Every structure is written in C-alpha cells, then in structure tokens.
Predict the 3D structure of the following.
Amino acid sequence: MPQETPYRWLNQEGRWPGASGGTLGREGDTRLLPVIGLPVGEPWAPFAFRPAGGAVEVRAEADGSVTVIDTGRQRVVRVGEDGRAAEAEDAQVPPEAPEDPALLAARTRVDGVAAAPAPDGWGSGFVAVTSSGDVFLVPEDAAEPEARLTGVIAGLAGVALDHRGRLLLAGPAGLYRPAAPLRAAWSVIVMPAPHPHGHARWDRVQVELAEPAPSDTHVRIWTLASGTPHGPDVPAPEPPAPTARDATDPDHAPVPTAAERWRAGPLDCPDVRVLAVPQDLAPALWVAVELVGDGCSTPRLSDVRVLRSGRGLLDQLPAVYTGDDDGTGQLGRLLGLFSSVYEEVTRDLDRLSELLDPAVAPDREDAPWLSRLAAWVDTGLDALDPVAPSSRVRWRREQVAQAVAAHARRGTPAGLVEAVRREVGGIEVEVHEPLLDAGVWKLGDPGSSVLGSTTRLTARPEPPVLGSTAVLDESWLIDAGDRGLPLYAQCAHRVLVLVPAEHAPALAAVRQVVERERPAHVVAEVRLKPAE
C-alpha cells in the first residue's frame, strides 16, 4: 500500500520544475485540451476603440471597406480595404439595421450580443460573441450543442463577414481577421519525478481527473527512466508519439523497460506501476500524461502524483512466501494490481459525497449523476429546460438542490406559483382561495349582512322533520361535527389560478402544471386574469 505521497503536480509549475505542457490549456484548476482554438493574432486594422458597453455594429461595405459603429458613444470608425482606420468626425450614427431572425436566434442561445454566419470552412452555423468576449460556434440545428472557441482576445463586442466572406471580429484594439478554428485532439504534458530520498523508490504514478472523461476521449500515463539525473539544465525528453512505437514499449511489453524508452500504461488507467530498470541504473524518472479528445470535448486533468509504494502488500505476508521480491517480481506485481483495484474502489467511495452533491455532480450523457439525483428527488430535468443554454447548467443544478424545499411547499398556494414560474417560462400567476373570502354573518354589519348576497338559508340545528325541515333531494343529513358544511361546501377545497392576459397562449401549459401539482382533494380552476 502507498506509504506517502509528498510530490504532487497540483497544477503548479513550481512544484514540477521543467514540466512542459505542449498545447495543453488551463481552465481554473484543471488542465485540458484547447478543443477548438481560434488563431487571432495581431489586429488587421488596429485602432483604439472601447465601446460604451454591449455590442457594436460592424458593417462590411461592397467596396471592401468596413464601418464600425458604437451607438452608445456616438462613434463611427471607417476602415479601408487596405486596413487603415480613421474615425469619422461629426459623423451621423446610422440607424441600427434590422437583424436576421436566424442571427438573433443564434446569439440568443448563448446570451450573445452579436452574431454572423460562419465562414466557409468553419462548418455550418453561426459565430456569436458575448458581452464577456467569449466566441461560440453555434450550429444551425438547435438540438446540437454550441462550442466555445478558446484563445480569443478579451473585450470582443462585434462580429461580421466582409465582402469576401471572411470573418471580422471587433475588439478594443481594432478589427481582427481570425483564421479557421484549430481542433486539437492529442496533447502530452511531460514532467520530472523528484528523486526519492534514502533507499525508497518511486514506483507508481496516478492521475486525477476533475470529472469523468467524456465518451470518446482518453487518458494514458507514460513513464521513462533516465540515466541523467534531473537538473535545471536537463531538458525534458521528447514526448511519446502514438506513431513512434519503435521508441516506446506498450503496456504488455516484457519487464523491465530499458532506460531512455517510454513505456505506455493501459489506456484510461489512472494508476500505473513504473516497470523500468532499477534506480541505481536510471536514477531519474519522467512522467508523461497523454490526453486524447474527440474534437468537441476533452478530459480535464486535475492532479498528477508519484507514489512510493515500497513492497506494498508483500509486507503483509510471511517472508517464506515473498522471498527477495522487492515489489517488482511476479508476486509483487500481482499484489500491486490487486492493490490498485482496491484503491480505485476506495477513491470512488471517498468521492461519493461529491457525486451526491448537486453543485458538483457530473452532468453528462456518459456520467448522468445529476439526472439520477433529479430522479431520486422527483425533479424532471429532462422535460423542463426553459432557460438559455449559457445558464442551463446552473439552472439544472439549482432545481435539484432546491427540490426538497420545493416538495415541502408542493400543493400550497406558494408551491403552485413556484411550479408555474419554474415550468412555464417564468409566468407569475395569482392563486385565490374562495374559502378565505367567506366570512361570518353579523347582524347590522353592512359588509356581512346584505340580504340575498351574504345571507343564505341552511339546515336547522335540530333533527330534520320529513315534510317540514327535511325536503326530498334538498336536505343534508350530517353529523354534529359537520355543522357548517352546507354553508361552505361550495367554496371549501377550491382554488382559482389567474393567468395574466398577455400569457393567454400558455393557458393550457399552466393548467397542466396546476392539475399535476394540486392536492388530490382540491378542485383547481385556471382562468385568464380579467382586465383591471
């Protein structure tokens, strides 16, 4: 079993001097592939242009020039075909041009401020820019997910196609002409493992992912024993390439792997043993973590650690069974395999609190933990999804986290209002209970003693008499505990839900939600709210 784990990567390059990440990018505390990178480079037409907020309009003229309009600051910049920009002094800001409904739908999907058709070679769909400067490729099919472009500049506020169909991005430094996006599907990070102290040796490498790897993406660990000790002037070895099999050993190669050769661990195995020559022959150990994406998604690497296992489970056996096996023999490797499987189960149990937390539980098709939590608390996320794509993840997690509290209010007036607001596009309805409007009759009270309006004949308290106080089909035989039922039966256990008149098309959807959420003994009626 592992005795200590003093050396970890932790996404801090200072802990791993000499580590090289290749094309790996960073997002928060994790490393990932830049799935779709947008090479922007220097601005094609540089000029200082800081919009007042929101979007700017980019108009491509037929003669090759471009007009950039900032309505908020009443500024107009004209860029010639040669890329020279000049601010038009005292220029009249032209009226805003009508927006194509397809472009409006594309930018609405990502809460964007501007959108343009995707140029040739980018794939069908649209390019949308958000107020925070993010750029998205939005497919035409609303059922397909959008893809975020990485590596773009900050402060983008406008997008358009020029007269030749090339993309133009408007940012604070001017106009950019980015090339077609690059899709990275393979990358490797190489790092040195610090030399162990004393007689111990490093013999296991583990990687930790921030979340389960998406389908069709993979992770592989490589190890290399080197005869050159680590040092500030020692360059990292070339990373293993999938095609260079002559310089690498596969995971089923004979043991040990010679020095200066990469050895591949099993695909998608997060815990591998270092099956290399002894440390007295090769005192330095290099670790490479290979990430493979599918062009649309990426594994998220959270941590890398090198463990000193020693003899592991061999220390739990009598010496007569282990002999001189130091952990690299056949028995030591078999017990190490068992130990790694056992530890993987233990790690899953340790992560159980994360998998049951709506705030961090994985929410993907291949790891639908959030959907499972939603089913356990009876919240139908798949059928209810009324929000914009950019806030859908937060919305789904909030619904699961608030489900228990929502069930406590289910069937109450407040619960009906919340259910309609949650499931029918944020519509605010009013719930009235007729019983609350029924008051006690008081003689002489102008508000409660109006003859024929607030008065009503009812059964006498004494026993009914046939032909006198009991009339066929017009009398109720009730117990003493039901006294008052004839007065309030017509308004008890009833609710009236009023829908604003402007939401008349959603009346059927509101009625469906109310019918499902009302208590079984309550009669609910849904109507349009009358005009004031």
In short: The chain has eleven helices and 28 strands.
